[in-house]
Each structure stands twice: as C-alpha cells, then as structure tokens.
Specification:
InterPro entries (chain B): RUBY_RBDX
Order of helices and strands of chain B: HHHHHEEE
Pfam families (chain B): RUBY_RBDX
Organism (chain B): Sphaerochaeta halotolerans
Protein name (chain B): Rubredoxin
Number of domains of chain A: 3
CATH architecture of the largest domain in chain B: Single Sheet
Oligomer: heterodimer
Strand content of chain A: under 5%
Strand order of the largest sheet of chain A: 1-2
Number of strands of chain A: 2
Distance between the termini of chain B: 39 Å
Strand content of chain B: 5-15%
CATH topology of the largest domain in chain B: Rubrerythrin, domain 2
Chain lengths: 161, 157
C-alpha cells in the first residue's frame, strides 16, 4: 500500500517532504515515487495539511455479488446504450452539418458513459476480479486464430492483474 | 461473462466494457494495465460499423424505450435485490437519459440555433449533458466538480 498525491489538491506546503523517511515524496514530476514509498507507512498522508495524499491499496476485496436479475437487466440496458451510441455516431457521420455532428457526438459520448456505468454495476467493477479475468480468458480462446486481435495485451493483462 | 452473453456483444458494448476497466485501472494508478485495456478498447473501436439507414427518430425512440421500460425493469430488479449500487447507476442513468431526450426534442424544434454561439458539455462520470457557455460548478446528477464536465467540440467537416 503506497501513497499517492492528488496534484490538484496539493497546496505545496511540502510537509510530506519533512516527514518522508525515504525521500519518496520529493520528485520532479509532482507524484510520489511509488518504488521508494514504504508499504503502509502513511506519515505523509497524516501530515499533509491539504489532504492531498492518500494510500493506494495493493489488493482489493472480492466485489459484492450481483443478483442474476440485476446483472441481466443492467447488461440489457448497457446494450441499449451501446446501440444508441452507434446510432448517434452513424447519424453524425452521415451528416455534413457541424452543429448536428456536435450534438450527435455529445449524445454518443453520454451513451458510452452510461453503458460503462451499467457494466460497472453488472459486476465488471474491479479489473482484478474473477469475472473480468474469466472474460479476458474467454476472449483469448475466442480470438485464437484472429491475427488482428491484441492477444499479447490480453495475456499481459492476465499476468499483471 | 457467461458464454451465452459473450456472443451477443457488439463492438460498442465491448468498447464500453473495456473503457470502463481502463478507467478503473487509472483510478488505481495502474497505468500499464490502463494502457493495455486501451489497446483492447481501440481494437473494438476499429470493429465498429456505422448503420447506413438510421434516422433521428429511431435514436429518440430508443431513448424513450429505455425510459419507459429498460430503467423500470432494472430498477425493479435492483429494488428486489436491495442493490443500492445498481440503484445509484439507474438513478443517474435515468436522469441523464431524460436530459438526452429533452435535448433531442429541443433540437427538433430549434435546429442549429440550439447550439449557436454556445456549447454542449458532457460529464465524464455520469453522462450528464448540458447546453450553455459554462457548465454548472458541480454536476447536478452525480455532484462531481465541473472540471470533469467537458465541452464537445464543433468540428469542421
């Protein structure tokens, strides 16, 4: 569990530099050096007067179980939102009116975000979770003979998550 | 995802699933994993096809159908399971969808005048859409500060 800085909150009082036993908080890019940070130390977190530093968990608990009915209805809603994104993008592409394209771009973007949120609450909230991992594995077997599919990226994800 | 669900997913659905996981990795400060999900998301972006024979009303009808059916069905399921996380997503999603519906109906009446000399904004957290010069200081749906509400650019064709 290492510390991280929310740069937009940091008021540069630099108390974290005084308390850090390893110098991890003092860097040229404003972020804490995670490799130097001591696991769970949290001295800088407690000392920061602007509450700009927090701890990043190394592990996460298993997400809450979703009921089958919730999962199904949210996946259906995600599909509907994704279809609307497609419709809005298609309408934008077919038009040469910049205002209409802008409007459809906004509708497509909004629908994309709505679909993402449905997936989150349908159980795909935590990248490290078994539902996500088994989905990634199923993609690998599904696309075994597909040269365009980024199998390396998926394999690396499964190793890292 | 279960095998029978898998086959039905379109490029747009898979793209949204991947970008959701990409964002989750970014929030955990796992930039490498986020970049890998971005690679997967862009693969699905390339698989996207546009519908040739689509019309404005079909899109509006789809939004209306979510409001009259999709959100109601899902809210009932969330209520039955006492799933407050799902309820949260549904409350936000329904509000954002009502605004999309209103926006599209306003465009039908006003045409290009709707966005003349002003801008359209989308909240990156909840999908809230807003027409105006500056977005509200906090999102009225999800209450995130306005730096997460972004303008949609008007691009020359």
């Amino acid at each position: 569990m290492h510390a991280a800085r929310t740069i937009s909150l940091c008021t540069k009082d630099c108390v974290c530099l005084f308390v850090c036993p390893t110098g991890a908080t003092d860097t040229e890019n404003g972020q804490i050096d995670f490799t130097k940070c001591l696991d769970g130390c949290r001295l800088c977190v407690d000392a920061c007067p602007s509450h700009a530093i927090y701890l990043v968990p190394a592990t996460y608990p298993v997400p809450q179980e979703k009921s089958e009915a919730v999962r199904k209805s949210l996946l259906a809603l995600a599909k509907s939102k994704a279809d609307q994104e497609r419709l809005a993008r298609s309408l934008a592409e077919a038009s040469d009116d910049p205002v209409f394209r802008q409007l459809m771009d906004a509708v497509a973007t909004s629908n994309h975000i709505l679909a993402e949120d449905c997936y989150r609450e349908a159980g795909y909230i935590l990248p490290q979770s078994e539902v996500v991992r088994s989905w990634l594995r199923s993609l690998l077997s599904e696309h075994e003979k597909d040269e365009d599919f980024p199998s390396d990226a998926v394999t690396t994800l499964l190793e890292k998550l | 995802m279960e095998e029978d669900d898998m086959r039905q997913l379109s490029a747009e659905e898979l793209g949204a699933l991947c970008s959701n996981l990409q964002k989750a990795c970014t929030k955990q400060l796992r930039s490498e994993e986020a970049a890998l999900f971005a690679v997967l998301a862009s693969y699905y972006d390339k698989q996207r096809t546009t519908k040739a024979d689509c019309d404005y009303n079909a899109l509006l009808d789809a939004i209306n159908k979510d409001l009259s059916e999709g959100f109601k069905d899902a809210s009932k399921a969330a209520e039955d399971a006492n799933d407050r996380g799902a309820k949260r997503a549904l409350v936000w999603g329904e509000k954002a969808s009502k605004l999309l519906q209103a926006l599209m109906m306003r465009y039908e009446k006003q045409g290009s005048a709707l966005l003349e000399n002003t801008n359209v904004w989308v909240c990156e957290i909840c999908g809230f859409v807003y027409v105006g010069d500056t977005p509200p200081s906090v999102c009225p749906i999800c209450k995130v500060p306005s730096f997460k509400i972004h303008p949609i650019q008007k691009e020359a064709v």
